[in-house]
Specification:
Blueprint lengths: L6 E3 L3 E3 L34 H17 L2 E7 L6 E7 L5 E5 L2 H21 L1
Antiparallel strand pairs: 1-2, 3-4, 4-5
């Protein structure tokens, strides 16, 4: 192809001429190659130091108090998971909880169902 063979089209820009099939280069697609990925074992996160946790929670609590809110951290007895609650500082009304009560109940139900399945198979 020569530069003189290129045609300018006003609406779409530059248009290249179509080559006949016999003039087109053959295109071969590479075969699928499987590459073995190195196995990486997940390393547990290092435990967070208690003084650092206390420092961060004090900063969060200070910030939320300035907005009329308080924060409460507790461990759910049934699941052993951390539950964080944001409360109105004046009324004590629950504003937000993570995970929510529904999620805690759902997790407990799933865990109970799983233990039933394991007991039945054993």
């Amino acid at each position: 192809m020569r530069i003189g063979d290129v045609q300018k089209v006003e609406t779409t820009g530059v248009r290249l001429p179509r080559l006949p099939a016999e003039d087109r280069p053959a295109v071969t697609l590479p075969q699928a190659v499987e590459v073995e990925q190195p196995k990486q074992e997940a390393k547990p996160a290092p435990p967070i130091e208690v003084p650092k946790i206390e420092s961060v929670t004090k900063q969060i609590d200070s910030f939320l108090r300035s907005m009329g809110r308080t924060i409460n951290f507790r461990v759910d007895q049934s699941s052993g998971r951390m539950v964080v609650s944001v409360l109105d500082a004046n009324t004590g009304e629950l504003i937000r909880q993570v995970p929510g009560e529904e999620a805690i109940r759902l997790a407990a139900n799933i865990e109970a169902s799983m233990s039933v399945l394991v007991d039945e198979r054993a």
